[in-house]
């Protein structure tokens, strides 16, 4: 059961004790985020040098972030093949990013539809939608500039998310947003300062990291508010659905099978190798650490959800993320 102490605090009763949440005012948060958006927004059409040729010998993402790094398959690749694999994997991540952003845009419009049209919350939800429009076009253009094509997820997932766009379940949706935004953020934060990485990828990553910081804040604060007014049963059920759905979606879609085929590897073998790689598992946990810490705080690792995240490798077996 959730007890509201006052307008600014909620206590969530979890199996490991009470979690006290500080709730922020929705209008005030939105007002601050609108101000940040005015100061720190980019126009990828002019803020990215699309005409610069790729720099020979540079990776397209940090090699450590590759799904096969520190495996026998990686060791067997030439340097050119490793570079090509990072080009393919960054394109896969961009494709997954576009698909996720399209889903998020639906959530944001659903949210805006329901709030007062003269409120800051309305204005911010549309500001974030506009950010995501620019991001998706930027990712698509990046993949095209690489000379590659984007990928859609398999039909089942593609259609499931399309249908889900017409339902409004804000607690589930903002939590799902957090999983993907924190994950992408971690990967891109590693890429943009890395001098071994192509300048185009670094600039695209930098723009995305700066603009996503406010999206993450918005999703986190909204998730807390949603949890505060939810029953414990509904929270736990939503958390378990999220863990089950998102762990599968992220695992299956991060690297498209064609990325492995492009460097002469058997996609099935490469996928199994990545899945059993301790380095890859550590990378997944590292990239998910902030969303897992946020979930721990709001009672989203309570009950079955924790085991599902652990089983899928996003959360260490013995770990309780720091709060
Ligand atoms: Fe984005
Ligand atoms: Fe975002």
Question: Could you characterize what this model shows?
Answer:
The structure is a single chain. This protein is mainly alpha-helical. The chain has a single domain (about 25-310), classed as Ribonucleotide Reductase, subunit A. It is built from 13 helices and three strands; from the N terminus they run βββααααααααααααα. It has helices at about 25-40, 45, 70-75, 80-115, 120-145, 155-165, 170-190, 200-230, 230-255, 255-260, 265-275, 280-300, 305-310, and strands at about 1-5, 10-15, 15-20. It has a three-stranded antiparallel sheet, covered by helices on one side. Helix 1 (about 25-40) runs antiparallel to helix 8. The longest helix has about 35 residues, at about 80-115. The chain binds fe (ii) ion (2 copies). The site of one fe (ii) ion has 5 residues, from helix 5 and helix 8.
Strand arrangement, largest sheet?
Answer: 1-2-3
Largest beta-sheet characterization: 3 strands, antiparallel
Shape descriptor reads globular
Beta-strand portion reads 5-15%
Number of domains: 1
Query: What's the N-to-C terminus distance?
Result: 21 Å
> Please, what is the average pLDDT?
93
Order of helices and strands: EEEHHHHHHHHHHHHH
- Based on secondary structure, the structural category is mainly alpha
Would you state the CATH class? Mainly Alpha
Contiguous uncertain segments of 5+ residues: none
Ions, cofactors and other ligands present here are: fe (ii) ion
**Named CATH architecture:** Orthogonal Bundle
Can you give the helix content as a percent range?
55-70%
The CATH fourth-level homologous superfamily = Ribonucleotide Reductase, subunit A
CATH topology value = Ribonucleotide Reductase, subunit A
Please state the CA-atom Rg, rounded to the nearest Å: 20 Å
* Beta strands, count: 3
Query: Can you count the helices?
Result: 13
């Amino acid at each position: 059961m959730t007890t509201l102490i006052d307008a600014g605090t909620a206590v969530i009763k979890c199996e490991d004790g009470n979690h006290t949440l500080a709730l922020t005012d929705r209008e005030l948060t939105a007002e601050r985020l609108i101000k940040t958006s005015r100061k720190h927004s980019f126009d990828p059409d002019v803020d990215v040098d699309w005409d610069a040729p790729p720099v020979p010998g540079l990776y397209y993402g940090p090699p450590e972030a590759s799904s096969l790094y520190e495996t026998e398959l990686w060791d067997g690749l030439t340097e050119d093949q490793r570079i090509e694999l990072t080009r393919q994997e960054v394109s896969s991540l961009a494709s997954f990013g576009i698909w996720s952003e399209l889903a998020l845009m639906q959530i944001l419009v659903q949210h805006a539809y329901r709030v007062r049209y003269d409120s800051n919350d309305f204005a911010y939800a549309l500001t974030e939608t506009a950010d995501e429009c620019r991001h998706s076009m930027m990712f698509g253009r990046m993949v095209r500039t690489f000379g590659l094509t984007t990928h859609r997820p398999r039909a089942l997932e593609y259609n499931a998310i399309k249908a889900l766009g017409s339902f409004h379940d804000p607690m589930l949706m903002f939590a799902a947003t957090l999983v993907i935004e924190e994950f992408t953020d971690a990967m891109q934060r590693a890429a943009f300062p890395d001098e071994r990485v192509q300048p185009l990828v670094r600039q695209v990553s930098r723009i995305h990291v700066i603009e996503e910081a406010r999206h993450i804040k918005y999703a986190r604060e909204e998730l807390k508010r949603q949890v505060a007014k939810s029953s414990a049963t509904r929270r736990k059920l939503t958390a378990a659905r999220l863990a089950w759905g998102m762990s599968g979606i992220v695992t299956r879609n991060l690297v498209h099978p064609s990325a492995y085929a492009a460097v002469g590897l058997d996609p099935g073998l490469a996928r199994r190798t990545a899945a059993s790689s301790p380095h890859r598992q550590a990378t997944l946990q590292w990239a998910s650490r902030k969303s897992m810490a946020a979930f721990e705080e709001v009672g989203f690792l309570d009950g079955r959800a924790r085991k599902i995240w652990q089983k899928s490798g996003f959360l260490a077996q013995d770990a309780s993320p720091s709060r």
